[in-house]
Structure formats: structure tokens, C-alpha cells
């Protein structure tokens, strides 16, 4: 059993819970996820099985797309609906669609974001949520993130003393969408929090391709799970690709240092080059050698004779 499983993560489970469940279902310890989703968040969570666990790091750097709902009128400790109310301010007059669009447009591009206290980022070797649970406020590192797209979805709903609306965001790795919701509220001069979130895309993986746990269990019962997994090579297909002939394949399988092809002369040191054989099997991931000019070295050997 090996490949990348595209899971439609259910609400109420941590990413670690999903990995633990897949270990039981697939009867293997070699399972890993490609990026944490909070328990209340649903949507695309690629999970690697078998030798595919070697490529986890190459599936976590991609941009992500989310659809979220923001509630204007009160903020919470966790910046989402699960936290305790921190500040309330009734929305006295309706917020217009035009004003919301102006705020969203102003946040597209490279911006700075302070991660929430209830997050897994480490400060002085300790996770922020551990400080938060102990009632300790610490200085959080400012992060630079990229917002590629931030658009309003549907209407702006003014409901009593609250205002709600949905938005779609495509953003860089490390973006906290619940913090974006808080930032949107600040620009509208109100406390706010994220009241719903679904990840619809992770890199090239779309929610339409994902399976629920019920569908996975059905596939296992019918001995069809392997056919539902993305092969390693296909999962990496958007990375730079090098096809080699059989006479080099054995050297690659043995982790040999090779000459860097001319088309990759300008690639950055450390940037991945995925090596395939004539049968389009993914053999290894190479990178420009840090010290040997015009050479490349393996960072991961994915297929060998073992």
C-alpha cells in the first residue's frame, strides 16, 4: 500500500486523529499528513502512505485555497467559533457589500500577520497554545504571508447585531485564516472571528477529488484502496521533472551523484528535481549539489531494488 490519499477531513478530528485512523484502516504504521488542519476545519488533507511518506515535505509548501465565513460583532480567544468571547460590539448600521470588497481587496499581496495565541507555533521551545492554556501572554513573531486572492462569496448578511459573510482566499503556506478574519474585522472597525472554514484546494489537489472516511472504508472492504491512491510520481508532477534512460536508472537507485543537466543550471540549490525512468516511475528526488559545480545529489531515493 503506497501513494497519496486525498482525504476530505471531517470536522471534530485533528490531523493527527486522521493519521491514526488511517493507520488502523490501512494496517500500516507508515502514514503521514501534509499539513495541519484545526479540528473544526474540513476539507482537503493529503495523507501519504507507505513510501509516499518520504515526500510529505514536498506536498506542504504549496499554496492553499479556503472558503471561510467571518462573523462581525465579537471576537474570541481562539479567533474562531470554539473560543470564549473576548470583546463584543454590536453592528449598529448595515455594512455594505462595497465596503467589504474594498477591505478584502486591500489585503491582497504581501502582508504581515501575527499568529494566534492558540496555535502550534513555538516560542522559546514551547507551543503558543501551551502558554495560552496557562494564561500566559507572550510576544508572537510577526509573519510575512502572501494573499493571492481574497474575494467575497455571496451576500453580506446583517443579522440583528451581527454581520456575516463568506470569502474565498488563496494564500501561502503558514497563513492563519482565522487571523485573517480578525484582521478583516479590524479594518471594518469591529471585533470579529472566523465562524466556519473549509479547505477546498491544497496545491493541485482539489476537494472534488477527495474521499470521505466512509468512502475509504468501502474501498478497503472491496479491496480497492490502492486504486484510489495517487502514485508518488503523479503527486509530484508539478515539480521540475527529469526523465532518464535505463543506463542511469541503476545509479539513481543507488544514490549516485550525477551531472546536472543543462536545463537545470539556473535552479536554486536545494530546489527539488524529480527523476523518472522510461516507464514514468518516480525513482528519486535530486537537487543541485551545494559544493560540486554542475553536479546534483539525491535528497530522497524513492525506488530501489529493496
TrEMBL record:
Keyword tRNA processing listed: yes
Keyword Isomerase recorded: yes
Source organism superkingdom: Bacteria
Entry's Gene Ontology molecular function annotations: tRNA pseudouridine(55) synthase activity
Gene3D superfamilies given in the database record: Pseudouridine synthase
Keywords: Isomerase, tRNA processing
Domain tRNA pseudouridylate synthase B C-terminal positions: 178-236
Enzyme Commission identifier(s): 5.4.99.25
A UniProt-annotated Pfam family: TruB_N
Active-site residues, record numbering mapped to chain: 38
InterPro entries named among the record's database cross-references: PsdUridine_synth_cat_dom_sf, PsdUridine_synth_N, tRNA_psdUridine_synth_TruB, TruB_C
Domain Pseudouridine synthase II N-terminal residues, every copy: 23-177
Purpose: Responsible for synthesis of pseudouridine from uracil-55 in the psi GC loop of transfer RNAs.
Protein family (similarity comment): Belongs to the pseudouridine synthase TruB family. Type 1 subfamily.
UniProt-listed PANTHER family: PSEUDOURIDYLATE SYNTHASE TRUB1 (PTHR13767:SF2), TRNA-PSEUDOURIDINE SYNTHASE (PTHR13767)
Protein name per Swiss-Prot or TrEMBL: tRNA pseudouridine synthase B
Encoding gene per record: truB
